[in-house]
């Protein structure tokens, strides 16, 4: 039986996620409905993607009885409210990364999932790429020996995009790009909490971080360096250095070919979103409430490190001041 999806928000990432879903077997994944705050946007989205049901509010989508899981593609500041809305309606949710604006909000979402006995996962798509699965396999087999250092870089000149540059929209390099570097580091170190976090960088005139460099020190003098930027092009790669060898992951060369998109995408390689969608289906079939590949503990740890890095850089959002 197909997993029945509802799409919350008719924006760019929801478009790409919908295209990615359509690369999976239709007997396994079915898009039932889409909701947007402007019903015209939802209608246009539904027409483009051939989705049968259209809603002009998220409340209506939450009440639809024929949906197994909702993909939440809103911008970060709305993740907490929309996530809680759907989970209180007993809907499983896949929430776009970052899961929320800070650790407090992440913990609220996890509590909502527990209280309502529903599935919750942060949509960090790269966690489920075949290349990530291969890296995990190499590490488990001891191919590089004992890991001594991890370095991950991701950056591009993106300050012209409002949601990346504006404080009110949850902008900044850390929340949008640094999260990918951190999740890779915590994949390698199995969700271990670092002993220390040192962050430096600079802010742009809107008050959000333009470039950030984080140095994480783990037990046994193991180190990780995360560099992210919305002001400059970085190497966009990751390296794992061990006592026996090195693994390099290049962000521009896909070693594992992705399926062709049925229509133009907004973001590079977005058909790769199919892997997180399939992870959700497999978890639901097994009756799981969280993904072993992206557990709540990892989402909490990433949010905690992001909070501390922002504190050191002097970046605050309105959501940080709510008691």
UniProtKB/TrEMBL annotation:
Catalytic reaction equation(s): D-xylose + NADP(+) = D-xylono-1,5-lactone + NADPH + H(+); (1R,2R)-1,2-dihydrobenzene-1,2-diol + NADP(+) = catechol + NADPH + H(+)
EC number(s) on file: 1.1.1.179, 1.3.1.20
Gene3D superfamilies: Dihydrodipicolinate Reductase, domain 2, NAD(P)-binding Rossmann-like Domain
Pfam families: GFO_IDH_MocA (PF01408), GFO_IDH_MocA_C3 (PF22725)
Domain Gfo/Idh/MocA-like oxidoreductase N-terminal: 4-121
GO molecular function list: D-xylose 1-dehydrogenase (NADP+) activity; nucleotide binding; trans-1,2-dihydrobenzene-1,2-diol dehydrogenase activity
SUPFAM superfamilies assigned: Glyceraldehyde-3-phosphate dehydrogenase-like, C-terminal domain, NAD(P)-binding Rossmann-fold domains
UniProt keyword annotation of Oxidoreductase present: yes
Top EC category: oxidoreductase
GFO/IDH/MocA-like oxidoreductase domain ranges (all copies): 134-247
Keywords: Oxidoreductase
Membership in a protein family: Belongs to the Gfo/Idh/MocA family.
Protein's recorded name: Trans-1,2-dihydrobenzene-1,2-diol dehydrogenase
């Amino acid at each position: 039986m197909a997993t029945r999806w509802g799409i919350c928000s008719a924006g760019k990432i929801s478009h790409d996620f919908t295209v990615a879903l359509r690369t999976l077997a239709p007997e396994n994944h079915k898009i039932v409905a889409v909701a947007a705050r402007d019903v015209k946007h939802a209608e246009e989205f539904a027409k483009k993607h051939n989705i049968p049901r259209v809603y002009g509010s998220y409340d209506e989508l939450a009440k639809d009885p024929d949906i197994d899981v909702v993909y939440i593609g809103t911008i970060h500041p709305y993740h907490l409210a929309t996530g809680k809305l759907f989970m209180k309606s007993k809907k499983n949710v896949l929430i776009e990364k970052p899961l929320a604006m800070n650790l407090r909000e992440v913990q609220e979402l996890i509590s909502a999932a527990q209280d309502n006995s529903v599935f919750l996962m942060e949509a960090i798509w790269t966690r489920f790429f075949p290349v990530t699965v291969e890296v995990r396999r190499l590490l488990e087999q001891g191919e590089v020996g004992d890991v001594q250092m991890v370095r991950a870089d991701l950056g591009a000149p993106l300050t012209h995009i409002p949601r990346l540059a504006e404080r009110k929209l949850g902008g900044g390099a850390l929340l949008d790009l640094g999260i990918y570097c951190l999740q890779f580091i915590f994949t390698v170190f199995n969700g271990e909490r670092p002993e220390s976090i040192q962050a430096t960088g600079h802010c742009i005139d809107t008050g959000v971080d333009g470039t950030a460099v984080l140095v994480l020190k783990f037990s046994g003098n193991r180190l990780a360096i995360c560099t992210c930027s919305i002001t400059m092009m970085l190497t966009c790669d990751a390296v794992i250095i061990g006592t026996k060898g090195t693994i390099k992951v290049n962000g521009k060369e896909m070693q594992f070919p992705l399926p062709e998109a049925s229509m133009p995408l907004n973001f590079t390689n977005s058909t790769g979103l199919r892997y997180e969608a399939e992870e959700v289906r497999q978890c639901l079939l097994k009756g799981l409430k969280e993904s072993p590949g992206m557990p709540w503990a990892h989402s909490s740890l990433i949010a905690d490190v992001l909070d501390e890095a922002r504190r050191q850089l002097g970046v605050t959002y309105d959501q940080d001041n709510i008691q």
